[in-house]
Automatic annotation (TrEMBL):
SUPFAM superfamilies, alphabetized: Globin-like (SSF46458)
One term of GO molecular function: heme binding
Protein name per UniProt: Globin-sensor domain-containing protein
Lineage top rank: taxon: Eukaryota
Length: 300
């Protein structure tokens, strides 16, 4: 007697043309493949207030990293990472163009904390990808994909460590939030890659290219919050007095005992960047009020 056939789920059909010409189809496919479900949406929704608190520190950390290399720094002067000329050595975090870019990164990260059930959420992520290949802007910007991928990975790493170190979240919530954010970031990575790679180029004439709009706008509507609105939301977040998502992080100082936030008088919240930079991204005063500051210090 022949054994009963194993049960197999029906194979889903994915139209290849639609993947390259219909953004909604592409998003649905990615959601299905990555098992992006209501559990992820719930994790993002309930965890958004914790992510918003981290945004000012994350923005500072990201731009410290980008300004460590001339090839990424030159994009802020020449609007292209392929430019081979010298870079202004005086370019720093307080330069006008860097402060301007920080404002939009804050807005972008706040957008990641919005409603992923709306197609507008994914349309904006797609537009962010398009804007980095010289399209959709009055003043084109060209950032090569190697730097895009590295920056996304860096942001994911910072977010993951901050979430897993959070003193108030239970482990199951930490895991759920890390998983959900990872899926969103990898979908964003795909929505960058689709503008760089040549896959599906035979359908190029059928692709819908978004209109040229000011940064932070989609379909003529402003969808990024002003920096003042973002900061007010951060101040309203219900962090417990004296609690800090970074306080459990530990760094190893050269020739000394490991240094933790609690060994420092001001209870500094520390993010680790490879030597010689150790970036202090926040502090608590004597009554436990959280402040989002950022500066660097040499630790010997």
């Amino acid at each position: 007697m022949a054994p009963a056939p194993l049960f197999r789920r029906p194979m889903k059909h994915i139209d290849r043309r639609d993947l390259y010409t219909n953004l909604e189809t592409r998003i649905q496919y990615l959601h299905s493949f990555l098992d992006f479900s209501t559990r992820d949406i719930e994790a993002l929704t309930t965890g958004a207030k914790y992510i918003r608190v981290l945004i000012p520190a994350i923005v500072n950390i990201v731009y410290k990293k980008l300004l460590q290399y001339d090839i990424t720094a030159r994009a802020f002067e020449t609007r292209s990472t392929s430019y081979e000329g010298p870079v202004d050595e005086n370019l720093n975090e307080d330069s006008p163009q860097i402060l301007h870019r920080k404002m939009f990164l804050r807005g972008y990260l706040n957008k990641l904390c919005s409603d992923p059930t709306k197609m507008e959420f994914w349309e904006y992520l797609d537009k962010v990808g398009m804007m980095h290949v010289g399209q959709g802007r009055q003043h084109p910007l060209h950032v090569e994909y190697v730097h895009i991928g590295a920056t996304l990975s860096f942001i994911q790493d910072v977010l993951t460590e901050a979430i897993l170190s959070h003193p108030r979240l239970k482990m199951e919530r930490k895991i759920a939030l890390v998983k959900a954010l990872s899926k969103v970031i990898w979908i964003q990575n795909d929505l960058f890659a689709k503008w760089y790679v040549r896959d599906g180029e035979e359908f190029e004439e059928e692709r819908l290219v978004p209109d040229v709009e000011p940064e932070g706008f989609l379909h003529g509507k402003k969808i990024l919050r002003d920096s003042s609105e973002s900061e007010s939301e951060i101040e309203d977040c219900d962090l417990a007095a004296g609690s800090c998502p970074f306080k459990n992080l530990t760094i190893q100082t050269r020739g000394q005992q490991p240094l933790t936030a609690h060994t420092m008088t001001a209870c500094l919240c520390i993010f680790y960047i490879p030597p010689p930079l150790y970036i202090f991204v926040g502090a608590h005063d004597s009554v436990g009020t959280a402040t989002c500051t950022s500066h660097t210090s040499q630790v010997e």
